[in-house]
Amino acid sequence: MITVLALRNPEPEYAGTRHNIGADILRAFSEANNFPAFKHDKFLKAEKSIGTIGDHDVQLLLSDTYMNESGQVVLAARLFPENTIVIHDELNVPVGDLKISYDAGAGGHNGVASVTSAFGTAAYTRLRIGIEPNHPVTGDARATFVLKPFTPEERQKIESSTKTFIDALTTIIKEGRETAMLKYHTK
């Protein structure tokens, strides 16, 4: 079974923020592929939905931990890095763009660092959804920036790109990470 884990902050006040874009995309993916409704699984520390994409059984998980504790889901669900795709926000990718990576550093993303620590390796696939602003964000400002909502213009870019994000995730599942990288990496 392939698992797709979306990193997020689960509290309602974080809905629609930049840090939760991975969860927004996973919900859109679930709806587009007619997965059953997400159900809370206290043991897994996540909301879960299971369905099929092509010939693959797929488990979708929306983390119920805070971003910096995302590795707890990896441990509770007993995930394996080779069968897991992690979706998360990426400050170093423009809004509306995506990057697919494998065996890469966390780049200052504490949720990714937590997942990597839980796996004991960075050798897992990541779908990185861009949230980069039009101006530089450095130091302590990064922590507050990711908790802000998108501007209306940025939200439009995200909405225009959602089908591409869904298609990229589908390609990773059906055809593999390398094929998806060739097809969807933005310049």
TrEMBL record:
GO MF, one annotated term = tRNA binding
By its UniProt entry, which CDD domains does this protein fall under?
PTH (cd00462)
Q: Which InterPro entries match?
A: Pept_tRNA_hydro, Pept_tRNA_hydro_sf
The domain of life for this entry's organism is Bacteria
SUPFAM superfamilies, per database record? Peptidyl-tRNA hydrolase-like (SSF53178)
Pfam families reported for this sequence: Pept_tRNA_hydro
* Record's keyword terms, sorted: Hydrolase, RNA-binding, tRNA-binding
What name does this protein carry?
Answer: Aminoacyl-tRNA hydrolase
Q: Record the organism.
A: Candidatus Kaiserbacteria bacterium RIFCSPHIGHO2_02_FULL_49_34
